[in-house]
Amino acid sequence: MxxxxxxxxxxxxMYAPVNGQIIPIEEVPDPVFNQKMMGEGIAIxxxxxxxxxxxxxxxxxxxPTMHAVGILAKDGTEILIHIGLETVALKGEGFTVRVKxxxxxxxxxxxxxxxxxxxxxxxxxxxxxIIITNSHDGSKQFTFTEExxxxxxxxxxxxxxxx
Length: 163
Description:
Main location: cytoplasm
Largest sheet: 8 strands, antiparallel
Number of strands: 14
Subcellular location: Cytoplasm
CATH superfamily: Glucose Permease (Domain IIA)
Strand order of the largest sheet: 9-5-6-7-11-3-2-13
CATH class: Mainly Beta
Oligomer: single chain
GO cellular component, one term: cytoplasm
CATH topology: Glucose Permease (Domain IIA)
CATH architecture: Distorted Sandwich
InterPro entries: Dup_hybrid_motif, PTS_EIIA_1_perm, PTS_EIIA_component
Strand content: 35-45%
Protein name: PTS glucose transporter subunit IIA
């Protein structure tokens, strides 16, 4: 009567958190990211706009230096958005955080306003990795978009499916 596939979990689609050029994680000029030490992911070279929630979930981390935010999606996927490279050294300059740990967020909600001019002048790069920090547990399979340009809230950049 019921088909087994009705009980399969729907894959989690993660949308571009910011407008910009999509690049494979392997091309991020930082070994922590390009060697996937923190997990699977993808990156965006931002063109404009703030950082928005790529999924519905809960904020589980806001870096004290405001350069990164962690989100726990409803399916248990942990997503880290790391704004720029070597931005921890900016000590919060260029970032205005609009959420706090424990906040429930909806997909597309503004998380952090970013002064891209300041970041591009004072950090090594504006490239923004989007990392699945619990991808090493092997419970999910990840697929990445073939798109080259991401539109915040519209372009699906990554999908997580149960194995």
